Amino acid sequence: MTPPDADATGRTGLGTHRREQQARSQGLGALYDSCGGPVYRLAMRLCRSSQEAEDLTHDVFLRFWQQDRYDPSRGPVLAYLLLLTRSMALNRISQRKNRWELMQRWSEQLFPAAVPTPHENAEADELAQRVRQALDAIPANQRQVLEMAYYEGLSQSAIGALLQLPLGTVKTRSRQGLIRLRALLHDSPAQL
């Protein structure tokens, strides 16, 4: 009678099930030697950090050994270990996300956003008024390009497309407008 792992010629070969039984009987070290590489690669792909992947690989084999829930009739040990790795990695990622959100809430409660003082509000209003006056003092074509860039957040190429101007013209107007604004704001009575 040939063993269940015997091949067609009758020679005994080490099939998957037999290797798993041998690895289990030889201990955790043999199991790690036979399955550690794929488990680590999956952990690395999921965790994206070599240190976390090493920790996860260690924890997977430790849990496998301590819990002894593997049933060979349900599939190969490597498939079980990879499923366990995936499950534990997703749990860690979820826990990390939850911890980050908790820290964000705590930091908002411990360090509330600074409320500007009346003096700071007055300074900001004064500065905004000076910038508006300086913008009104520069040529309309330069003001238009600067307002589109800074207030609407458009790139110079988008401004050129909207105004149907060459990119070089938009850049020139923008640069000349900024030079003019700097001179106007620098020469105003209250310094920045």
Q: Tell me the structural class.
A: mainly alpha
What are the segments in which pLDDT stays under 50 over at least 5 consecutive residues? 1-14
DSSP strand tally: 0
- Quote the average pLDDT: 83
- What is the succession of H and E elements? HHHHHHHH
Annotation field: number of helices = 8
Rg calculated over all Cα atoms = 34 Å
Terminal-residue CA separation: 95 Å
| Rough outline | elongated
Helix fraction, binned, reads over 70%
State the major sheet. none
Taken as a percent bin, the fraction of beta residues is under 5%
Please give a structural write-up.
The chain is 74% helix and 0% strand. It is mostly helical and 192 residues long. Helix 2 crosses helix 3 (50-67), helix 3 crosses helix 4 (77-110) and helix 7 (156-163) crosses helix 8. It is elongated.
Distinctive features:
elongated; disordered N terminus; 0% strand; 192 residues
SSE layout and pairing:
Layout: H1 16-26, H2 28-47, H3 50-67, H4 77-110, H5 118-137, H6 140-150, H7 156-163, H8 167-187
Helix pairs in contact: 1-2, 2-3, 2-4, 3-4, 6-8, 7-8
Structure, briefly:
With 192 residues, the protein is mainly alpha-helical.
